[in-house]
Amino acid sequence: MNEWSFSPGRRYRNMLILIHVGVWVMFFSWPLVFSHTDIPDFRRFYMRYLISPFLCLCLFYFNYFFLIRRYLFAGKMVRYFLINLLCIGASVMLMHFWQKNLMDLIFGKPDPVPPGRPGPIGWLFLFSNFVRFVLVVGFALAVRSVGRRYRMKMERQAFEKEKNEMELNSLRQQLHPHFLFNTLNNIYALISIDQEKAKTAVHDLSGLLRYVLKQGEQDTVSLSEELHFMNSYIALMSLRLSPNTRLEVDFPAEDSVRSCQVPPLLSLNIVENAFKYGMAANKSLIQIRLQVDRARRLICFHCQNTFVHDDGREPFGGGERTELGLQNLYKRLHYIYGEEFHFEVGPKGDMFEADLLVPCRVGSGNRDCSKCNR
């Protein structure tokens, strides 16, 4: 991926520019702030000093904007170090020429060095400047590498976020045909039993589809809207129930949970499977319960149905489609809540149970999803 394909935020760029400007302003103004202005020929002293930060600045940004990206990050390390060695050597010689020759041409010969006061040693002067420029190159490399790692990290986060959103949208879209297929199957079976009920079911289906297509694309809906949909869906599915199947539904009043926000159609797959696999020729039970634990800011959903083992028919949880639906639900929960949810599903004796606990997004609070008071 191109290093420049990700553009950091404006705030980050502005902060980076301010840091660069502040460091170089301090470097260039150091003698003006910390040196005595009564130094003889201060102008000559400052111009003599000025060549050092100027060459450091050139070396730094030549590396920062060109050499590191063009050679080092491209894997051409030998060429990178050779070019830097030549640049550092040229900078040392230019600084030596500036201070030994050009300064005399511009400002004239300096005063003789007083007796007993040694002048600068040539080789020590050259070595100290060489070390200084090497440190500048190393600092440019460090700053550039840290910035590159930060950009790569932000790129990965943006890519992962985009990937998760695409997968989440895909999981949402899979709900629509699955919901429609099961509901139409239910209505089709109802036609041969009670045509009047079938007509009512078709009418009710239009309202459910409107919710699925409109609200199903939202990130969150109010829990009251979700409960209204679930009540309508359960009423529609219960039209096919035989007298041998007992249905128990325990939801809070819709007006009492308007402040809670949940992802739409979160428990739809569980309820669908409970109706699909929970009806038997003998006595059976479908129990659906939802509670809001306001103290811990948790929404607790519990669903159980009789574990059917009729010959020729797979039990709930044993079929490929059912397992795929539960896997998709788990993925969707993980994308939305991370680790802040609890989802447990499986047979317990003669019953098949599903427990789902998710945070109620109404503010800060305890989000421990390990258990719920039912």
Description:
The chain has helices spanning 10-34, 42-72, 77-107, 122-191, 195-214, 223-237, 268-278, 320-337; strands at 221-222, 245-250, 261-262, 284-293, 298-306, 342-348, 351-359. Helix content is 59%, strand content 12%. It contains eight helices and seven strands. The model is unreliable at 1-7, 310-319 and 363-374 (pLDDT under 50). The chain has two domains: 10-157, no CATH class; 241-359, Heat Shock Protein 90 (2-Layer Sandwich). The protein is rod-shaped. Helix 4 packs antiparallel against helix 5. It is of the alpha+beta class. The longest helix has 70 residues, at 122-191. It starts with 9 loop residues before the first helix and ends in a 15-residue tail after the last strand. The strands form two sheets. Strands 2-4-5-7-6 form a five-stranded mixed sheet, with helices on one face. Strands 1-3 form a two-stranded antiparallel ribbon.
Comma- or semicolon-separated keywords:
disordered N terminus, alpha+beta, two-stranded antiparallel ribbon, 8 helices, 12% strand, 374 residues, 2 domains, five-stranded mixed beta sheet, Heat Shock Protein 90
Summarize the structure.
By secondary structure, the protein is of the alpha+beta class. The chain has eight helices and seven strands, in the order H-H-H-H-H-E-H-E-E-H-E-E-H-E-E. The chain folds into two domains: 148 residues, no CATH class; 119 residues, Heat Shock Protein 90 (2-Layer Sandwich), CATH 3.30.565.10.
